[in-house]
Design brief:
InterPro entries: E_motif, PPR_At4g14850-like_plant, PPR_rpt, TPR-like_helical_dom_sf. Helices cover 69% and strands 0% of the residues. By secondary structure, the chain is mainly α. It has a domain of 31 residues.
Length: 458
Protein backbone atom coordinates (compact mmCIF):
# COMPACT_ATOMS: atom_id res chain seq x y z
CA UNK A 1 0.00 0.00 0.00
CA UNK A 2 1.17 3.49 -0.81
CA UNK A 3 0.16 6.95 0.17
CA UNK A 4 1.11 9.33 -2.67
CA UNK A 5 0.57 13.06 -2.29
CA UNK A 6 -2.25 12.96 -4.82
CA UNK A 7 -4.25 10.62 -2.58
CA UNK A 8 -3.82 12.99 0.38
CA UNK A 9 -5.22 15.94 -1.51
CA UNK A 10 -7.96 14.24 -3.47
CA UNK A 11 -11.27 16.12 -3.56
CA UNK A 12 -13.10 12.99 -2.42
CA UNK A 13 -11.45 13.32 1.00
CA UNK A 14 -13.30 16.60 1.53
CA UNK A 15 -16.57 14.67 1.54
CA UNK A 16 -15.55 12.74 4.68
CA UNK A 17 -15.88 15.74 7.00
CA UNK A 18 -19.41 16.31 5.67
CA UNK A 19 -20.58 12.72 6.08
CA UNK A 20 -23.25 12.34 8.79
CA UNK A 21 -25.15 9.15 7.97
CA UNK A 22 -24.44 5.52 7.14
CA UNK A 23 -25.88 6.00 3.65
CA UNK A 24 -23.45 8.85 2.98
CA UNK A 25 -20.65 6.62 4.25
CA UNK A 26 -21.54 3.89 1.76
CA UNK A 27 -21.58 6.42 -1.08
CA UNK A 28 -18.14 7.73 -0.17
CA UNK A 29 -16.82 4.18 0.14
CA UNK A 30 -18.17 3.47 -3.34
CA UNK A 31 -16.32 6.52 -4.67
CA UNK A 32 -13.11 5.28 -3.03
CA UNK A 33 -13.46 1.90 -4.73
CA UNK A 34 -14.32 3.44 -8.11
CA UNK A 35 -11.40 5.87 -8.32
CA UNK A 36 -8.84 3.63 -6.59
CA UNK A 37 -8.37 5.54 -3.31
CA UNK A 38 -9.06 2.31 -1.46
CA UNK A 39 -5.56 1.18 -2.44
CA UNK A 40 -3.86 4.02 -0.57
CA UNK A 41 -3.13 4.07 3.15
CA UNK A 42 -3.93 7.69 4.00
CA UNK A 43 -7.42 7.82 2.42
CA UNK A 44 -8.21 4.43 3.95
CA UNK A 45 -7.23 5.70 7.40
CA UNK A 46 -9.67 8.60 7.00
CA UNK A 47 -12.40 6.22 5.88
CA UNK A 48 -11.76 3.93 8.86
CA UNK A 49 -11.94 6.87 11.27
CA UNK A 50 -15.28 7.95 9.83
CA UNK A 51 -16.85 4.51 9.60
CA UNK A 52 -15.76 3.42 13.11
CA UNK A 53 -17.58 6.47 14.46
CA UNK A 54 -20.77 6.04 12.42
CA UNK A 55 -20.99 2.25 12.18
CA UNK A 56 -18.30 0.07 13.74
CA UNK A 57 -19.36 -3.21 12.03
CA UNK A 58 -19.03 -1.42 8.66
CA UNK A 59 -15.54 -0.21 9.61
CA UNK A 60 -14.53 -3.77 10.47
CA UNK A 61 -15.87 -5.04 7.15
CA UNK A 62 -13.74 -2.45 5.34
CA UNK A 63 -10.69 -3.40 7.37
CA UNK A 64 -11.11 -7.13 6.72
CA UNK A 65 -11.02 -6.49 2.98
CA UNK A 66 -7.65 -4.72 3.17
CA UNK A 67 -4.83 -6.92 1.95
CA UNK A 68 -1.91 -6.87 4.41
CA UNK A 69 -2.92 -3.74 6.39
CA UNK A 70 -0.05 -1.64 7.70
CA UNK A 71 0.59 -1.01 11.40
CA UNK A 72 -0.53 2.58 10.71
CA UNK A 73 -4.01 1.35 9.75
CA UNK A 74 -4.16 -0.95 12.77
CA UNK A 75 -3.21 1.95 15.02
CA UNK A 76 -5.79 4.21 13.40
CA UNK A 77 -8.62 1.75 13.93
CA UNK A 78 -7.59 0.87 17.51
CA UNK A 79 -7.30 4.55 18.46
CA UNK A 80 -10.70 5.37 16.96
CA UNK A 81 -12.38 2.43 18.69
CA UNK A 82 -10.96 3.42 22.09
CA UNK A 83 -11.85 7.11 21.67
CA UNK A 84 -15.35 6.54 20.31
CA UNK A 85 -16.59 3.44 22.08
CA UNK A 86 -14.43 3.48 25.21
CA UNK A 87 -14.97 0.54 27.56
CA UNK A 88 -17.67 -1.14 25.46
CA UNK A 89 -15.21 -2.26 22.77
CA UNK A 90 -11.96 -2.73 24.72
CA UNK A 91 -11.94 -6.43 23.83
CA UNK A 92 -12.04 -5.54 20.14
CA UNK A 93 -9.09 -3.15 20.47
CA UNK A 94 -6.99 -5.90 22.06
CA UNK A 95 -8.14 -8.40 19.44
CA UNK A 96 -6.78 -6.12 16.71
CA UNK A 97 -3.56 -5.62 18.67
CA UNK A 98 -3.01 -9.38 18.75
CA UNK A 99 -2.98 -9.38 14.93
CA UNK A 100 -0.15 -6.86 14.61
CA UNK A 101 3.16 -8.53 13.88
CA UNK A 102 5.33 -5.52 14.76
CA UNK A 103 3.58 -2.89 16.90
CA UNK A 104 5.27 0.48 17.28
CA UNK A 105 5.22 3.32 19.79
CA UNK A 106 1.93 4.63 18.36
CA UNK A 107 0.15 1.32 19.06
CA UNK A 108 0.31 1.39 22.85
CA UNK A 109 -1.09 4.72 24.16
CA UNK A 110 -4.66 3.92 23.08
CA UNK A 111 -4.43 0.41 24.52
CA UNK A 112 -3.21 1.68 27.88
CA UNK A 113 -6.06 4.17 27.88
CA UNK A 114 -8.52 1.36 27.18
CA UNK A 115 -6.99 -0.77 29.95
CA UNK A 116 -7.78 1.90 32.51
CA UNK A 117 -11.49 2.14 31.68
CA UNK A 118 -12.60 -0.72 33.93
CA UNK A 119 -10.96 -2.89 36.64
CA UNK A 120 -11.51 -6.03 34.59
CA UNK A 121 -8.97 -4.74 32.05
CA UNK A 122 -6.29 -3.69 34.55
CA UNK A 123 -4.60 -7.07 34.39
CA UNK A 124 -4.43 -6.85 30.59
CA UNK A 125 -2.84 -3.42 30.92
CA UNK A 126 -0.12 -4.76 33.22
CA UNK A 127 0.58 -7.57 30.73
CA UNK A 128 0.80 -4.95 27.99
CA UNK A 129 3.35 -3.06 30.07
CA UNK A 130 5.47 -6.21 30.28
CA UNK A 131 5.24 -6.52 26.50
CA UNK A 132 6.43 -2.94 26.07
CA UNK A 133 9.47 -3.63 28.26
CA UNK A 134 10.43 -6.53 26.01
CA UNK A 135 10.37 -4.39 22.87
CA UNK A 136 13.10 -2.19 21.49
CA UNK A 137 14.50 0.72 23.50
CA UNK A 138 12.84 3.49 21.43
CA UNK A 139 9.38 2.14 22.26
CA UNK A 140 10.13 1.76 25.97
CA UNK A 141 11.35 5.34 26.28
CA UNK A 142 8.90 7.00 23.92
CA UNK A 143 7.30 10.02 25.59
CA UNK A 144 3.76 9.14 24.51
CA UNK A 145 4.09 5.57 25.76
CA UNK A 146 5.52 6.73 29.09
CA UNK A 147 2.71 9.27 29.51
CA UNK A 148 0.12 6.59 28.67
CA UNK A 149 1.64 4.31 31.31
CA UNK A 150 1.39 7.06 33.91
CA UNK A 151 -2.25 7.56 32.98
CA UNK A 152 -2.99 3.83 33.10
CA UNK A 153 -1.57 3.28 36.59
CA UNK A 154 -3.17 6.50 37.81
CA UNK A 155 -6.57 5.24 36.61
CA UNK A 156 -5.90 1.95 38.39
CA UNK A 157 -5.33 3.80 41.65
CA UNK A 158 -1.65 2.78 41.71
CA UNK A 159 -0.31 6.23 42.52
CA UNK A 160 3.10 5.09 43.67
CA UNK A 161 3.72 3.22 40.42
CA UNK A 162 2.39 6.14 38.38
CA UNK A 163 4.64 8.55 40.27
CA UNK A 164 7.68 6.30 39.82
CA UNK A 165 7.09 6.14 36.06
CA UNK A 166 6.48 9.89 35.94
CA UNK A 167 9.78 10.63 37.68
CA UNK A 168 11.64 8.71 34.95
CA UNK A 169 10.34 11.00 32.20
CA UNK A 170 13.00 13.58 31.34
CA UNK A 171 10.67 16.37 30.27
CA UNK A 172 7.01 15.52 30.97
CA UNK A 173 4.59 17.53 28.90
CA UNK A 174 1.53 19.40 30.14
CA UNK A 175 -0.86 16.49 29.55
CA UNK A 176 1.30 14.12 31.61
CA UNK A 177 1.57 16.62 34.46
CA UNK A 178 -2.20 17.04 34.41
CA UNK A 179 -2.75 13.29 34.44
CA UNK A 180 -0.71 12.89 37.61
CA UNK A 181 -2.22 15.98 39.24
CA UNK A 182 -5.73 14.68 38.59
CA UNK A 183 -4.83 11.28 40.03
CA UNK A 184 -3.58 12.78 43.28
CA UNK A 185 -6.55 15.16 43.47
CA UNK A 186 -9.03 12.30 43.03
CA UNK A 187 -7.40 10.06 45.62
CA UNK A 188 -9.83 9.34 48.46
CA UNK A 189 -8.52 6.06 49.78
CA UNK A 190 -5.54 5.09 51.88
CA UNK A 191 -3.36 8.14 52.40
CA UNK A 192 -5.94 10.47 50.87
CA UNK A 193 -4.90 13.63 52.71
CA UNK A 194 -1.23 13.02 52.00
CA UNK A 195 -2.04 12.55 48.32
CA UNK A 196 -4.00 15.81 48.22
CA UNK A 197 -1.06 17.66 49.76
CA UNK A 198 1.24 16.04 47.21
CA UNK A 199 -0.97 17.43 44.46
CA UNK A 200 -0.28 20.94 45.77
CA UNK A 201 3.47 20.28 45.80
CA UNK A 202 3.33 18.87 42.28
CA UNK A 203 1.57 21.98 41.03
CA UNK A 204 4.33 24.18 42.47
CA UNK A 205 7.01 22.02 40.81
CA UNK A 206 5.10 21.97 37.55
CA UNK A 207 5.28 25.75 37.16
CA UNK A 208 9.07 25.61 36.79
CA UNK A 209 8.88 23.50 33.62
CA UNK A 210 5.50 24.01 31.93
CA UNK A 211 2.71 26.58 32.16
CA UNK A 212 -0.36 25.17 33.94
CA UNK A 213 -3.67 25.39 32.13
CA UNK A 214 -7.31 25.19 33.17
CA UNK A 215 -7.12 21.40 33.61
CA UNK A 216 -4.21 21.84 36.01
CA UNK A 217 -6.17 24.35 38.06
CA UNK A 218 -9.20 22.06 38.30
CA UNK A 219 -6.97 19.40 39.92
CA UNK A 220 -5.44 21.99 42.25
CA UNK A 221 -8.84 23.32 43.32
CA UNK A 222 -10.15 19.80 43.89
CA UNK A 223 -7.22 19.14 46.21
CA UNK A 224 -7.82 22.37 48.12
CA UNK A 225 -11.49 21.47 48.46
CA UNK A 226 -10.61 18.02 49.79
CA UNK A 227 -8.27 19.54 52.37
CA UNK A 228 -10.66 22.36 53.23
CA UNK A 229 -7.86 24.78 52.40
CA UNK A 230 -9.47 28.15 51.77
CA UNK A 231 -6.07 29.88 51.51
CA UNK A 232 -4.93 27.44 48.83
CA UNK A 233 -8.20 27.90 46.96
CA UNK A 234 -7.94 31.69 47.04
CA UNK A 235 -4.35 31.44 45.79
CA UNK A 236 -5.52 29.22 42.90
CA UNK A 237 -8.28 31.73 42.10
CA UNK A 238 -5.81 34.62 42.08
CA UNK A 239 -3.44 32.60 39.87
CA UNK A 240 -6.31 32.05 37.44
CA UNK A 241 -6.94 35.80 37.23
CA UNK A 242 -3.27 36.80 36.97
CA UNK A 243 -2.49 34.35 34.18
CA UNK A 244 -5.63 35.21 32.20
CA UNK A 245 -6.81 31.62 32.15
CA UNK A 246 -10.44 31.00 31.26
CA UNK A 247 -13.16 30.75 33.89
CA UNK A 248 -14.77 27.96 31.90
CA UNK A 249 -17.45 25.58 33.13
CA UNK A 250 -14.97 23.10 34.61
CA UNK A 251 -12.89 25.71 36.44
CA UNK A 252 -15.98 27.58 37.61
CA UNK A 253 -17.64 24.42 38.93
CA UNK A 254 -14.46 23.48 40.81
CA UNK A 255 -14.24 26.94 42.37
CA UNK A 256 -17.90 26.87 43.42
CA UNK A 257 -17.39 23.46 45.02
CA UNK A 258 -14.22 24.67 46.76
CA UNK A 259 -15.75 27.80 48.25
CA UNK A 260 -18.90 25.92 49.25
CA UNK A 261 -16.93 23.27 51.13
CA UNK A 262 -14.97 26.02 52.89
CA UNK A 263 -18.22 27.70 53.96
CA UNK A 264 -17.79 30.77 51.73
CA UNK A 265 -21.10 30.69 49.89
CA UNK A 266 -20.87 34.38 48.96
CA UNK A 267 -17.63 33.69 47.07
CA UNK A 268 -19.22 30.66 45.42
CA UNK A 269 -22.18 32.78 44.29
CA UNK A 270 -19.81 35.45 42.97
CA UNK A 271 -17.99 32.88 40.83
CA UNK A 272 -21.33 31.53 39.59
CA UNK A 273 -22.48 35.01 38.55
CA UNK A 274 -19.18 35.74 36.74
CA UNK A 275 -19.36 32.62 34.56
CA UNK A 276 -20.38 33.34 30.99
CA UNK A 277 -21.65 29.83 30.37
CA UNK A 278 -23.18 27.52 32.95
CA UNK A 279 -24.05 23.87 32.55
CA UNK A 280 -25.91 21.38 34.74
CA UNK A 281 -22.74 20.46 36.66
CA UNK A 282 -22.24 24.11 37.59
CA UNK A 283 -25.78 24.38 38.93
CA UNK A 284 -25.38 21.08 40.80
CA UNK A 285 -22.30 22.42 42.60
CA UNK A 286 -24.15 25.58 43.66
CA UNK A 287 -27.25 23.67 44.80
CA UNK A 288 -25.08 21.19 46.72
CA UNK A 289 -23.29 23.99 48.55
CA UNK A 290 -26.57 25.63 49.54
CA UNK A 291 -28.03 22.28 50.61
CA UNK A 292 -25.14 21.46 52.92
CA UNK A 293 -25.48 24.81 54.69
CA UNK A 294 -29.27 24.57 55.05
CA UNK A 295 -30.37 27.13 52.45
CA UNK A 296 -33.17 25.02 51.00
CA UNK A 297 -35.27 27.79 49.46
CA UNK A 298 -32.24 29.27 47.72
CA UNK A 299 -31.30 25.80 46.43
CA UNK A 300 -34.78 25.30 44.98
CA UNK A 301 -34.45 28.73 43.37
CA UNK A 302 -31.30 27.58 41.56
CA UNK A 303 -33.03 24.33 40.57
CA UNK A 304 -35.89 26.27 39.00
CA UNK A 305 -33.43 28.62 37.31
CA UNK A 306 -31.59 25.64 35.82
CA UNK A 307 -34.82 24.45 34.22
CA UNK A 308 -35.81 27.93 33.03
CA UNK A 309 -32.44 28.21 31.25
CA UNK A 310 -33.31 25.16 29.16
CA UNK A 311 -30.81 22.88 30.90
CA UNK A 312 -31.73 19.29 31.72
CA UNK A 313 -31.42 18.19 35.36
CA UNK A 314 -29.53 14.92 35.81
CA UNK A 315 -29.46 12.29 38.55
CA UNK A 316 -27.08 14.37 40.67
CA UNK A 317 -29.34 17.42 40.36
CA UNK A 318 -32.22 15.55 41.97
CA UNK A 319 -30.00 14.15 44.71
CA UNK A 320 -28.69 17.54 45.82
CA UNK A 321 -32.03 19.31 45.43
CA UNK A 322 -34.05 16.76 47.41
CA UNK A 323 -31.28 16.78 50.00
CA UNK A 324 -31.63 20.58 50.23
CA UNK A 325 -35.36 20.17 50.83
CA UNK A 326 -34.67 17.54 53.49
CA UNK A 327 -32.23 19.74 55.44
CA UNK A 328 -34.65 22.67 55.32
CA UNK A 329 -37.92 20.91 56.10
CA UNK A 330 -39.39 21.58 52.64
CA UNK A 331 -41.19 18.25 52.45
CA UNK A 332 -43.89 19.01 49.87
CA UNK A 333 -41.38 20.67 47.55
CA UNK A 334 -39.04 17.67 47.85
CA UNK A 335 -41.85 15.22 47.11
CA UNK A 336 -42.85 17.15 44.00
CA UNK A 337 -39.27 17.20 42.74
CA UNK A 338 -38.87 13.47 43.37
CA UNK A 339 -42.12 12.70 41.52
CA UNK A 340 -40.97 14.81 38.55
CA UNK A 341 -37.89 12.65 38.03
CA UNK A 342 -39.75 9.87 36.27
CA UNK A 343 -42.96 11.67 35.29
CA UNK A 344 -41.35 14.67 33.61
CA UNK A 345 -37.68 13.89 32.95
CA UNK A 346 -37.90 10.10 32.42
CA UNK A 347 -35.11 9.47 34.93
CA UNK A 348 -35.53 6.27 36.92
CA UNK A 349 -34.76 6.94 40.63
CA UNK A 350 -31.89 4.94 42.10
CA UNK A 351 -31.45 3.73 45.66
CA UNK A 352 -29.66 6.99 46.50
CA UNK A 353 -32.73 9.00 45.47
CA UNK A 354 -34.99 6.80 47.57
CA UNK A 355 -32.55 7.32 50.43
CA UNK A 356 -32.99 11.09 50.10
CA UNK A 357 -36.76 10.64 50.00
CA UNK A 358 -36.75 8.50 53.17
CA UNK A 359 -34.54 11.10 54.87
CA UNK A 360 -36.88 13.89 53.73
CA UNK A 361 -39.94 12.16 55.21
CA UNK A 362 -38.16 10.84 58.28
CA UNK A 363 -36.69 14.16 59.37
CA UNK A 364 -40.16 15.72 59.33
CA UNK A 365 -41.59 12.90 61.46
CA UNK A 366 -43.57 11.28 58.64
CA UNK A 367 -42.13 7.87 59.47
CA UNK A 368 -45.16 5.90 58.33
CA UNK A 369 -44.83 7.37 54.84
CA UNK A 370 -41.06 6.76 54.91
CA UNK A 371 -41.63 3.11 55.81
CA UNK A 372 -44.20 2.77 53.03
CA UNK A 373 -41.68 4.28 50.60
CA UNK A 374 -39.10 1.66 51.62
CA UNK A 375 -41.60 -1.16 51.07
CA UNK A 376 -42.48 0.08 47.58
CA UNK A 377 -38.87 0.56 46.42
CA UNK A 378 -38.12 -1.42 43.25
CA UNK A 379 -34.66 -2.31 44.62
CA UNK A 380 -33.26 -3.57 47.92
CA UNK A 381 -32.58 -0.79 50.48
CA UNK A 382 -28.91 -0.33 51.33
CA UNK A 383 -27.25 0.29 54.70
CA UNK A 384 -27.14 4.06 54.22
CA UNK A 385 -30.91 4.20 53.73
CA UNK A 386 -31.59 2.10 56.83
CA UNK A 387 -29.20 4.26 58.88
CA UNK A 388 -31.14 7.33 57.80
CA UNK A 389 -34.43 5.70 58.77
CA UNK A 390 -32.95 4.62 62.10
CA UNK A 391 -31.78 8.15 62.84
CA UNK A 392 -35.24 9.54 62.17
CA UNK A 393 -36.87 6.85 64.32
CA UNK A 394 -34.56 7.67 67.23
CA UNK A 395 -35.11 11.43 66.92
CA UNK A 396 -38.89 10.98 66.95
CA UNK A 397 -38.80 8.21 69.61
CA UNK A 398 -40.44 5.66 67.31
CA UNK A 399 -39.05 2.52 68.96
CA UNK A 400 -41.02 0.11 66.78
CA UNK A 401 -39.63 1.48 63.51
CA UNK A 402 -36.20 1.90 65.08
CA UNK A 403 -36.22 -1.81 65.80
CA UNK A 404 -37.16 -2.56 62.19
CA UNK A 405 -34.32 -0.37 60.91
CA UNK A 406 -31.79 -1.92 63.28
CA UNK A 407 -32.72 -5.48 62.39
CA UNK A 408 -32.28 -4.72 58.70
CA UNK A 409 -28.98 -2.98 59.41
CA UNK A 410 -27.74 -6.00 61.33
CA UNK A 411 -28.39 -8.10 58.26
CA UNK A 412 -26.24 -5.76 56.15
CA UNK A 413 -23.54 -4.82 58.69
CA UNK A 414 -23.32 -7.84 60.95
CA UNK A 415 -19.81 -6.97 62.13
CA UNK A 416 -20.76 -3.51 63.42
CA UNK A 417 -21.04 -3.75 67.20
CA UNK A 418 -22.63 -0.31 67.50
CA UNK A 419 -25.81 -1.54 65.81
CA UNK A 420 -26.19 -4.37 68.35
CA UNK A 421 -25.67 -1.92 71.20
CA UNK A 422 -28.34 0.44 69.83
CA UNK A 423 -30.78 -2.44 69.43
CA UNK A 424 -30.05 -3.60 72.96
CA UNK A 425 -30.61 -0.09 74.33
CA UNK A 426 -33.92 0.23 72.48
CA UNK A 427 -35.06 -3.09 73.99
CA UNK A 428 -33.94 -1.87 77.42
CA UNK A 429 -35.94 1.33 76.94
CA UNK A 430 -39.01 -0.82 76.29
CA UNK A 431 -38.22 -3.05 79.34
CA UNK A 432 -37.83 -6.03 77.02
CA UNK A 433 -35.02 -7.63 78.99
CA UNK A 434 -35.34 -11.02 77.34
CA UNK A 435 -34.61 -9.37 74.00
CA UNK A 436 -31.64 -7.55 75.53
CA UNK A 437 -30.19 -10.90 76.52
CA UNK A 438 -30.94 -12.38 73.08
CA UNK A 439 -29.09 -9.48 71.45
CA UNK A 440 -26.04 -10.15 73.62
CA UNK A 441 -26.17 -13.83 72.69
CA UNK A 442 -26.43 -12.84 69.02
CA UNK A 443 -23.26 -10.79 69.37
CA UNK A 444 -21.46 -13.79 70.83
CA UNK A 445 -22.76 -16.10 68.08
CA UNK A 446 -21.40 -13.76 65.41
CA UNK A 447 -18.19 -13.10 67.36
CA UNK A 448 -18.80 -9.38 67.45
CA UNK A 449 -16.79 -7.59 70.14
CA UNK A 450 -18.38 -4.68 71.99
CA UNK A 451 -16.40 -1.45 71.56
CA UNK A 452 -14.69 -0.19 74.72
CA UNK A 453 -16.76 2.36 76.64
CA UNK A 454 -20.14 1.17 75.27
CA UNK A 455 -22.42 -0.39 77.80
CA UNK A 456 -25.45 -2.58 77.13
CA UNK A 457 -26.55 -2.71 80.74
CA UNK A 458 -29.79 -1.12 81.95
Amino acid sequence: MTSPSTSKNHRCLNLISKCKTRENLKQIHGQFLTIGLSHHTFPLSKLLLLSSTLCLPYALSIFRRISNPSVFLYNTLISSIVSTHQSTQTHLAFSLYAQISRPNEFTFPSLFKASGFHPRWHRRGRALHAHVLKLLEPVTHDGFVQAALVGFYANCGKLRVARSLFDRITEPDLATWNTLLAAYASSNEGEGEIDLEECLRLFVNMRSSVRPNEVSLVALMKSCAGLGSLCGGVWAHVYLLKTNLSLNQFVGTSLIDLYSKCGCLSFARQVFDEMRQRDTLCYNAMIRGLAVHGFGLEAIGFYKNLISQGLAPDEATFLVTISACSHSGLVDEGLQIFDSMKAVYKIEPKVEHYGCLVDLLGRSGRLEEAEECIKKMPMKPNAMLWRSFLGSAQVHSDLERGEIALKNLLGLEIENSGKYVLLSNIYAGMNRWDDVEKTRELMKDHRVNKSPGISTSN
